[in-house]
Amino acid sequence: MRLLLLSNSIAPGYGPLEHAHAVLRDVLGDARTVAFVPFALADHDDYTKTVTDALRPVGVEVVGAHTGEPADVVNRADAVFVGGGNTFRLVTALYRHGLVEVIRRRVYTGMPYIGSSAGTNVAGPTMRTTNDMPIVQPPSFDTLGLVPFQINPHYVDTIPGDTHMGETRERRLLEFLEENDTPVVGLREGTWLRRHDDLLTLGGIEAGARLFRRDADPAELSTGTDLSPLLQTTPRFDV
């Protein structure tokens, strides 16, 4: 299994996907065609063009999943890239187009999977740790299950003295753990998780990440940390 799960496609100080060109080349290997799943945003053509331009330096051809029968487009490609946007809209479309099982089957048989933002969130067992507003209602919160733990892309630290009165990101994830028992990796901007079979590592710029577990204080993770033990997780929900 080859996964690259990016917190975001545009890291601070970089153009689209520029911060990840080297790791993208490595993960994609000899893949030449990438099926891009643009359904988290409304303008599929424009989104696909942006990703096509961003991946041109990597040397792959990008085909929008919306340009044909989405399941057929994914099945014909060498790799799949699920882009970010609104996770509720994305998950609704994945079910509508029959992509949940198609992507899962292809990835489990060796197809490289690239996710960014919402596309990273859906790599976990459920979408429950998304940051997004529920603008549509998906048929299920269950997602691809390519890793057995939850991910929170765009993780934002609490700023001391901030006058915002709503829940912090940390508070929301701790509330998730009050109802569910599965680790959550909070990915700061410019970071990613890379899985190669049974090896899972944290990569990206030096921002690092935070690991949330039930009945434990959040733990700071530095870039380069081996997170392979998380692949042995047995997620438990609604407990």
TrEMBL record:
Bias type Polar residues, positions: 222-239
Gene Ontology MF: a single term: serine-type peptidase activity
Reactions that this protein is recorded to catalyse: Dipeptidase E catalyzes the hydrolysis of dipeptides Asp-|-Xaa. It does not act on peptides with N-terminal Glu, Asn or Gln, nor does it cleave isoaspartyl peptides
Swiss-Prot/TrEMBL keywords: Cytoplasm, Dipeptidase, Hydrolase, Protease, Serine protease
GO aspect biological process, one term: proteolysis
EC number, UniProt record: 3.4.13.21
Chief site of localization: cytoplasm
Renumbered residue ranges of the record's region Disordered: 219-239
UniProt cross-references to InterPro entries, sorted A to Z: Class_I_gatase-like, Peptidase_S51
GO cellular component: cytoplasm
Localization, UniProt: Cytoplasm
UniProt family annotation: Belongs to the peptidase S51 family.
Record protein name field: dipeptidase E
Gene: pepE
